[in-house]
Amino acid sequence: MSLADKRRVRAEVAWWCAHVGFWCVAVALEVLELAGRLTRWAAREGWYRPHISLAVAMSTLPAYWIGPTAGAATFAAMMLGRGAWLVRRFGRACGASSARALVPILFTLSRQHVRAARLRRRWRKLAAPVLRLGHGLTGEPPRLRAFEYPSPVRVTAVANVSATGRHIDDWLTPRMGDLRQLLGKPLHSVTVTEVRGHAGLARFSFRYGSPLEEVQPITALPDPLPGWAFFGLGADGEPAGVRLDLSTLFTGESRSGKSTSMWCYILSALEQWYRAGGDPVEFWVIDLALTEFHDIQPLTADLRPQFNSLDPERGLKGHRYATTQAQACQLLRLAMEEADRRARILTDKHQKKLHPSEDLPRIVIVVDEALRLVESRGDASIQRLGTEATMRLRQILTQHSKFGVSVIAGTQASKIEVLTHIRDWFQQRVAFSTATKEMTDTALGQGAAAAGANCHQLSPYWDAGRGFMHRDGHSGFFEMRGIYLTDDDTAVIGRGEIPDRLLARRGEKTSKEKTPGAVYVIWGAPDPAGHPDAEGVARRCLYVGMTVELDPADRWLDHLGGATREAGTRKKWADKVERIDVIAEDEDTGMPLTKRDAELLERRLVRLYNPSENDIRYLIETEYERELIALGGKMHR
Ligand SMILES: Nc1ncnc2c1ncn2[C@@H]1O[C@H](COP(=O)(O)OP(=O)(O)O)[C@@H](O)[C@H]1O
Ligand SMILES: [Mg+2]
User: Fold this and answer.
1) Which of 128, 263, 392, 492 could form a disulfide with 332 if both were Cys (CB 3.0 to 4.6 A apart)?
2) Candidates 3.30.300, 1.10.238, 3.40.720, 3.30.980; correct CATH number of 99-209?
3) DSSP structural state of residue 305
4) Looking at residue 635, what is its pLDDT?
5) Atom of ligand 1 nearest to the CA of 412
């Protein structure tokens, strides 16, 4: 082969290498891209089911090692497990609390499946053409998929409506009335919302009963409105609420949802203050049932001397919270004194009515079991206390609302004569399930039962939280259902915070995201043996602590004196404190301290100052701290 030939062959080979390589890479990329698009399309259209793929992947192992039967058995077992989990979840959504309800749960769940199958059929035939959701070229309507059964009267499904090219709210929402008509009788209503994070996907909710038959979660709480407190929703989705400046009576049988609604009132009142720029509110709580409002103690903590009296019978132990009739009388007396004080302030300012401010917040007296409060049958002391409580309650209810003092009370309608007498002092009334028509009339006013408030037909077992009330500016009675709060929610509300689930729903930062840390060092009087501080004065370090509050002084006093111990101890300690240093920022960056940094700093300062009051001392650097430092925490400042 000549040199020229060799050169030609080499050039040829090089040409092929370059081009074949190029084509291989190009084809591979194209294939990958197609596969990606296919996966994305499958996920979006609901063809891709993660739980099935997982079960298939898992069962390939036994199929490979043991045999095809073992693989099939594994697959079946996993699917069965998932089925059991779904049934259990549905049972919970129906409010079933024990496994004995399995038969009714299975019955209801099968009914939901039948409904879904019917919907699927009718959707293709009727709905899609009317809503004009078909594909532009083929006219093929989108499939209903991802069926879910969030409650016994609701079925939801997702459809891809991007082919219409129109906005869901503009295009579909107004047509939902027609859709309900078309889909036929058992349907109660249809609503549509967009699926968050997936443009073009719409979630349809088909209801087969009044929304009042469903438990309303905390996330359904209506948006706050200044001057109002909401605690539920009506059948039409309108908020059920009362005005903060008027007093409200909640009546119903035991376990009918009164206390839950009052907690919800408190939550909504706090929200309208924090978020909507509404009236500041302060809660004074009388809880003669002892358990229902126990969680509210942090919110009612009060350092004013009148709440810290040492009286064994009437002393309130540092909280605006009364659990006995005697304490309740004391609390009402303080409320009247406060009203008198406000009256004087208003006279000085020539005002007729109080406009709540941070200094003079609206006072809401929360009374659970109001009939127990005014109970006056018994020995002499009960008679005296009952009469006193009735007198004070009447005075507050009838005269002090202009000074920003209002009352919400929950009570059973058992003593008709007593309740009728008290009821008329409340301007707003809400009734939950009652035993008889007379009790409905007692709770809401004469003629309420005849006018359609069927409280006596509700059962506390199925209908807890359902009730009737007057609605501002409407005649007749408004049927509503209270929001359901769990014990965890009430514990958060009792601290004066908004539960995370609600914050997340409102699109706000949740508590986990927003609490920075801070470290505080408390110094006592100079002590020659102590550690000299920056000014060279030898001060005694009393305490080093970590907190998420920026002003920890109260917290520190609580720590030493005990919130419930006598005021004397707190005072003694307060005198000893010379200075409190709060370190809330990173020295280098000026950023708020994270909780982790605060934790590290606390340990380090405890080691450095050896404070006399810390229970825990950190003598050596722990493995944990070293780990935290390795993760980027700061130890030295
Ligand atoms: N809005 C509601 N929706 C569903 N269930 C509720 C609702 N409110 C209360 N419940 C149920 O009823 C029970 C009793 O409520 P509670 O408010 O303590 O009643 P009451 O104070 O009238 O005795 C609660 O434990 C809860 O299970
Ligand atoms: Mg109660």
Assistant:
1) 392
2) 3.30.980
3) G
4) 46
5) 22
Q: Are 247 and 335 in contact (CB under 8 A)?
A: no
Tokens representing 22 are 């190029």
For the segment 233-287, what is each residue's pLDDT rounded down to a tens digit?
A: 998 888 999 999 999 999 998 888 899 999 999 999 999 998 888 889 999 999 9
Q: For 430-439, what is the mean pLDDT?
A: 90
Centre of ligand 1 from the C-alpha of residue 475, in Å: 27
Over the stretch 302-342, which tens digit does the pLDDT of each residue have?
Answer: 888 888 887 888 888 888 999 999 999 999 999 999 999 99
Distance 487 CA to ligand 2 centre (A): 13
Q: How many CB atoms lie within 10 A of CB 165?
A: 9
The predicted-structure confidence for 64-84, as pLDDT tens digits, reads as follows 999 999 999 999 999 999 999
- For residue 637, what pLDDT band results from cuts at 50, 70 and 90? very low
Q: Find out whether the beta carbon of 457 lies less than 6 Å from any atom of ligand 1.
A: no
| CATH class belonging to 223-506 | alpha beta
Alpha helices in 400-528, H assignment, sequence order? 416-423, 437-444, 487-494, 500-505, 511-514
pLDDT average, residue stretch 465-470: 90
Residue % of the chain over a pLDDT of 70: 90
Partners of 248 in beta bridges:
408, 428
Domain boundaries 518-630, CATH class: alpha beta
3-class SS at 300? Answer: helix
Cβ of 434 closer than 6 Å to ligand 1, yes or no, is no
Ligand 1: atom nearest CA of 263 is 17
93: nearest Cα among 80, 82, 109: 109
Helical spans, DSSP H, in 132-231: 168-171, 176-183
At 389 the three-state DSSP class reads: helix
The alpha carbon of 279 and the centre of ligand 1 are apart by a number of angstroms equal to: 28
